[in-house]
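Dear Dr. H.,

I hope your travels went smoothly. While you were away I took the liberty of generating a structure for the chain from your last submission, since the lab meeting agenda had it listed for discussion. I wanted you to have the full record in hand beforehand rather than looking at slides cold. The sequence, exactly as received, is reproduced here:
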Amino acid sequence: MGYNALRLLKEGLTGNKGWQPVWRDPAPKDAYDIVIIGGGGHGLATAYYLAREHGLRNVAVLEKGYLGGGNVGRNTTIVRANYAMPGNSEFYSHSLKLWEGLERELNYNVMHSQRGLIDLFHSDDQRDAYVRGGNAMINQGDDAVLLDRDEVRDRLPYLDFDNARFPIHGALLHPRGGTARHDAVAWGYARAADRRGVDLIQQCEVTGIDVEGGKVQGVTTTRGVIRARKVAIVTAGRSGQVAAMAGLRLPVESHVLQAFVTEGLKPIIDHVVIFGMGHFYISQSDKGGLVFGGDLDGYASYAQRGNLPTAEHVMEAAMALMPVVGQARVLRSWGGIMDMTPDGSPIIDRTGIEGLYLDCGWCYGGFKATPASGFALAHLLATDRPHDTAARFRLDRFRDGVGLMDEEGTGAQHKLH
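The corresponding predicted structure, in token form, is as follows:
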């Protein structure tokens, strides 16, 4: 169905009774060419690009709950391409380009707002690191602008520039960075995939992955057995649990990453602001709420909620950076389950089981990677060759150590990413 101002007016005056479902609710078929486990942003994007780029429509997305009920709806909505490591840099650059054309392509408003991302630095050494990172971004073809203290003050006058512990020396501005509406991204991809014939099957939990003779045969679900030539695991923080159904042990740990939102306020924050010394990031939604987050909780967990010490740490960082928000009331918080790899970079690859594929290990980068992840995994599923932008996201790098990608420069250890 179409969306326009006249239709909105009509439905508003008639009790909103004329809206039709945005996608079908099909019963699962006995067999598909490809089954995607996970109805989040990455899984839905993969299904869409399989249909659009490769003409593969005998595809099912299986979701144990409702579409978009996982990490794609549990994040701080940031979209950026400020990565410096070869392998990550070109991938996220590709993702940002896809973001920039996504609304027109899907004919759906995902509220992509390129308001600019400002990453603060607080020491001379940190400035040098940001200069290197900015040069890497420019060499990749993306945008980066080094700001001095006065230029930051002009843009962000509400920050505490006199904090003795965390003096603001300047920032790296990523003008094309910004935010998007997380739910709308899932809905847009779902509608577009459905229109191309993909079956989106909700309330269908996968309880087993059927493997015979080293080859995947399909999956067992709460709605019956579904055969498939290829199966993709795209379940974010649950990747380790789902892969275990096929006898695989993945090099990932699942941790909770909390996020918070305040009551609606008058516009104050025009950008995404990142506090370089406190691992704190904040933006303001179109409804006026301040959306912010910080570090991972310090222990592995599958719970979609966090602990109070981490919440306190995030609030402390907020007050150290911008005391002006001290009177704002926090309305709610939530937790996403981050599948963390030892080197801080993701996995898009085939497994040792023929016909079984992985998309996992996104650490802090899952939401912003949504378009490029779906694009790359669809290419891999359709051709059995990695897409150029994801060629380094190999699973076997954790077995032999060749090609490890230490994006943060903190060493290949789970708890440092």
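Two observations you may find useful: The two ends are 44 Å apart (CA to CA). The chain is about 30% helix and 25% strand.

With kind regards,
E. W.
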